[in-house]
Structures are given as structure tokens and as C-alpha cells.
Specification:
Layout: E1 8-11, E2 18-22, H1 36-39, E3 44-48, H2 71-84, E4 90-95, H3 97-108, E5 113-119, H4 128-141, H5 144-154, H6 163-174, H7 177-189, E6 202-208, H8 216-225, E7 230-234, H9 241-244, H10 246-257, H11 266-278, H12 280-288, H13 295-309, H14 317-331, H15 334-346, H16 351-364, H17 367-384
Parallel strand pairs: 2-3, 2-4, 4-5, 5-6, 6-7
Antiparallel strand pairs: 1-3
């Protein structure tokens, strides 16, 4: 039987708001694995494979000859999938080529995209000649040669030897060479720079600061061009930031896609963000220790602090973390300071950035307060190493 839809996998409550996740070139829906449990708590998460990748047939493409396939063709396949699933409007997050698909959909079908997250992507991907050369190489020799260099393009050297990185490189080798090359052609022709002002969906752009495939300036171009878009830069992350630094990417996505939910959903949104920032272990301990006396307070901080404030789109989670550290130093809340220092590391702040925050507190909160804060931070950093 001829496959008519992109291979896909759904997680989360069937009645929850739908959220489509698009992969990057050479990867499968597994590239989103680390993000799914948190996103699926309050969304119907649907991941799909690009044609010729994972479980999707290369035959879904209009053709695999040079120059035949465009990003618009890939977007049409996503709309076919959404229609088959009965999704009139949906949230969409995509990595690299998957992000290009989402950007094209939001610009050309604004009535379908409720909210958009573009992760390590661009309005245009380098020079067309580079993509035509890669397409020709794959058509001639298969995906092996590009798979060998994929890890270096996707990850920082510190992450490149991890098992997660090596597994994703195997997905490149397994991709259909004709479909991979056709997707290269689509990237060569892709340029939505002039279409960015047409996007009306609430948009977040996420960038890896050490991304060599789509450098941070490409992300800033997207954020500057899309009206009202936010931008989050993930420290110590390469092109597949959602794999290399899942915690800060997860926090950014949760904050973006849960913003503006109905009042009855704020508790669930707050729970998701609280776990992403503070970690499952801490939240589990807090819930296990909840009594009839403290239950209302726990519900209050989950709904209000985490469900209404931390989920707001106006500030990135990293910025909120810096503000929180400053307030805790000023008030002398030392146990909470240690907790939020760990959260800051989880959100992508470097020890150097934490040091700068604490130096700032020495000026405005007092040297004795900063002295204690530095001692606590030193202990936390040593423990986290």
C-alpha cells in the first residue's frame, strides 16, 4: 500500500491542544525524545519524520530529481497530516529544516498556526551552491560521507562523543539518499526573509550559541523580522540544542507554548515549568512533603509563581533566573538561593555568568550578602561538577 501521510507518533492527552514537532535534516522524530514527556503533559504532541527519513517514505515527495522539491512541498505534507488528524489550528516547533517548514506555514497559512517555535533555524540557509554540492555528493555516494561529518556540525566537541550524538548520526546513514538530496535542494532554494513580517503567530526563536550550522546571527535575523518574536540563546549548545541542552530548551518551549492558556490550565502549565526549572527530584520531594496544612500554599506557588509569572513570554527563563538570584541574595534566603543556583545551571547559565550576577549584587545588595552568596555558589558549583 502506498504511504500517503508522513510517519508520525502522538503523545499526550487526545483532547489537549495539538503541538506538531518537526525534525532537522538527517534526523528522525527521535530528535525530540528528550522534550516529549514535559510537552505532552498538557499538549497532544505529534512528531513526524521527513520524507525518506525514519518511517516516512521517500515517495511522499513530488519528485527527487535535482531542484524538484521545495520547503513549500514539505509544508504541504505537514498540512496533509494535520488535516488527516482533524487539526484545524495547532502549535508548531521545528528544528533547522523543520523550523523552516514551520516558518513557511506561519507566513503562508497564518490561520493554521496558533504559536510557533523556531529552533536553530534560519530565514535562509547559507549559499545555494553549498546545498547543491551536498545534494550531488549524496546522490553520487549515499549519505555515508555526510553522516561522518554530521556530529561536528550538530554538537559541541564536549558532547560529540556521547551516545545520543552517535545514535543520531546513524539516522543520517539510514536516510534515503534521494530524499536527503531533495531536502538539500529545498534548503538551497529557501528564503523567507521578505515573508517574516507576515507571520502573526506568537513566535519564539531558540538558538545555540555554538551552532556552526545556523549561527546565532541567523536566529537574530528571524527574531528581528517576525513581529513580536522572542529570542532565547542557549549557552554551550550546538545545532541540535534540544538534544545537547534539553533542560533550557525545554524550559523555553514550555514557557512559550503554555503562555496564554485558560485559567484552569495554569496549574498544569506551572507544574511543567516548575519541573523544567527546578528539576523533577525537587518537585517530587515538595509534593511528597505536602500536608493538609501546606497544600493551599503549594497550589498557590504552582499556579501563580510558576503558572502565571515564569510562563510569561516577555522575558526568557534565563533572565528570570538572574532576577531571582538577585532577589534571593538581597533577602538572605540561602536555602532557596542554593536551589535556584542549580536551576540557573539547568537553564544554561555558565559559572562565569553566575559570577557576574553575584558581583552585581555586591554593589546593590551589599558586600556581606554577596560574600555569603559566593560561598553558597562555590559549594553548589563543586557539587554539580
Amino acid at each position: 500500500m502506498t504511504q500517503r501521510l508522513l510517519h508520525h507518533h502522538a503523545d499526550g492527552p487526545a483532547a489537549a491542544p495539538p503541538l506538531l514537532l518537526g525534525p532537522s535534516l538527517g534526523t528522525t522524530l527521535a530528535v525530540w525524545e528528550a522534550q516529549v514527556p514535559a510537552l505532552a503533559r498538557e499538549h497532544r504532541v505529534i512528531r513526524y519524520d521527513l520524507p525518506g527519513h525514519g518511517g516516512s517514505a521517500a515517495g511522499l515527495l513530488p519528485g527527487t530529481e535535482p531542484g524538484r522539491t521545495t520547503v513549500a512541498d514539505l509544508a504541504a505534507l505537514v498540512l496533509d497530516l494535520a488535516d488527516a488528524l482533524g487539526l484545524e489550528r495547532f502549535g508548531y516547533a521545528g528544528i533547522s529544516l523543520g523550523g523552516a517548514v514551520g516558518t513557511w506555514l506561519a507566513a503562508h497559512h497564518p490561520h493554521r498556526v496558533e504559536a510557533l517555535a523556531v529552533v536553530c533555524s534560519a530565514a535562509r540557509f547559507g549559499t545555494p551552491a553549498l546545498w547543491h554540492e551536498r545534494a550531488a555528493l549524496v546522490r553520487a555516494q549515499g549519505t555515508g560521507p555526510v553522516a561522518d561529518g554530521a556530529i561536528g556540525r550538530w554538537f559541541t566537541p564536549a558532547f560529540a562523543t556521547r551516545i545520543e550524538a552517535l545514535a543520531l548520526a546513524d539516522d543520517v546513514r539510514a536516510a534515503d539518499p534521494r530524499a536527503y538530496a531533495a531536502c538539500c535542494d529545498a534548503l538551497a532554494a529557501f528564503d523567507v526573509t521578505g515573508d517574516l513580517p507576515r507571520i502573526t503567530a506568537r513566535t519564539l526563536v531558540v538558538a545555540g550559541r555554538e551552532d556552526v550550522a545556523t549561527p546565532v546571527d541567523r536566529a537574530r535575523e528571524l527574531a528581528d523580522g517576525i513581529p513580536g518574536a522572542g529570542l532565547v540563546e542557549i549557552a554551550r549548545a550546538g545545532h541540535l540544542a534540544a538534544v545537547e541542552r534539553p533542560e533550557p530548551v525545554r524550559a523555553a518551549l514550555l514557557g512559550h507554548f503554555t503562555a496564554g492558556t485558560a485559567a484552569e490550565q495554569r496549574r498544569a502549565a506551572g507544574q511543567s515549568v516548575r519541573r523544567a526549572v527546578l528539576g523533577d527530584a525537587h518537585v517530587d520531594r515538595a509534593q511528597a512533603g505536602t500536608t493538609a496544612f501546606t497544600a493551599d500554599f503549594q497550589d498557590f506557588i504552582t499556579r501563580y509563581a510558576w503558572g502565571e509569572i515564569w510562563t510569561r513570554p516577555g522575558l526568557p527563563a534565563r533572565t528570570r533566573s538572574c532576577i531571582t538570584l538577585t532577589a534571593l541574595v538581597a533577602r538572605g534566603h540561602h536555602e532557596e538561593l542554593a536551589l535556584h543556583l542549580r536551576a540557573a545551571l539547568r537553564l544554561g547559565l555558565t559559572p562565569e555568568e553566575i559570577k557576574e550576577v553575584l558581583l552585581q549584587t555586591a554593589v546593590y545588595c551589599g558586600v556581606p550578602a554577596a560574600n555569603t552568596a559566593f560561598a553558597i555558589a562555590q559549594r553548589v558549583l563543586e557539587e554539580e561538577r
